[in-house]
Design a protein that fits this description.
By secondary structure, the chain is mainly alpha-helical. It has ten helices and no strands.
Length: about 250
């Protein structure tokens, strides 16, 4: 499918803005870039092209925030469970109803947002995070494998930990790094990478490498309270997307 120069500008802008948001918050790149790219390239093409940039972007954030690792909790448990879940989710890809999953996830996020707004500074009890991290990791991996929408669940869960902003970015980027790596390897294994798509993936790295560091710098100027509010706004935006997916029957 050929695209015009203006279309290319829109795609590059979406990738750059998504990378900026990702640098600041740890999320937002695929949620913004893939829907825009899908308009011009198709969903499968967009997902394949953005898989490798997702690995690189998350890897860079993990490395730049590595000093925050000690401030996270239960991350190895979530990573291990998430890998298992992604395998299960991929195997169940053709049998699960993505619309139902999107609707349930949207309801969970709305409930959490309401609670966080009514009780500012709310965090999940330690007993809940200890018991729930493995199941949440498993479900998030399953959602990633089956529908590609693990981000809203992970964002909601990790926001409830009340971690410092940089520790939060390290935690969610670590999970996304593992999931996107599994995704990229799977896509390559089933032959969805052509030489053209591989080149497009590498070119997509250019705006990411420029905008991601700017987002990281911007995050340093945000207070913890402002950072938490930004995450809640992103969660609200994800609800809109999930509701659309539920009604349209085309989860992204």
């Amino acid at each position: 499918m050929g695209i015009e120069l203006l279309d290319l500008v829109v795609i590059v802008a979406a990738i750059a803005v998504g990378a900026f948001i990702k640098g600041a918050t740890g999320g937002g790149l695929p949620q913004l870039a893939i829907p825009v790219m899908a308009v011009f390239l198709g969903v499968e093409h967009a997902v394949v092209v953005m898989a490798i940039p997702g690995v690189v972007a998350n890897g860079l954030l993990v490395w730049s925030h590595r000093a925050e690792a000690s401030k996270t909790r239960y991350l190895p448990v979530m990573v291990g469970a998430g890998i298992a879940g992604s395998i299960i989710g991929t195997m169940l890809l053709k049998t699960l109803d993505g619309r139902v999953l999107s609707g349930v996830l949207a309801a969970v996020i709305v409930g959490y947002i309401v609670l966080a707004v009514l009780k500012p500074g709310f965090t999940l009890p330690a007993s809940v995070t200890r018991v729930g991290s493995a199941p949440v990791g498993l479900v998030a991996g399953g959602l990633q494998g089956a529908t590609g929408i693990s981000g809203p669940l992970l964002t909601t869960w990790l926001h409830g930990f009340g971690m410092p902003p940089r520790a939060y970015v390290f935690a969610i980027s670590s999970l996304f790094f593992v999931f996107s790596s599994v995704q990229a390897i799977t896509l390559a294994g089933i032959g969805l990478y052509t030489s053209t798509r591989l080149l497009e993936s590498l070119l997509a790295l250019l705006p990411i490498l420029l905008a991601l560091p700017l987002g990281v710098r911007a995050a340093k100027k945000l207070s913890p309270q402002t950072f938490q509010r930004v995450i809640l706004v992103l969660l609200a935006a994800s609800v809109v997307s999930l509701v659309h997916d539920t009604l349209a029957g085309a989860p992204s």
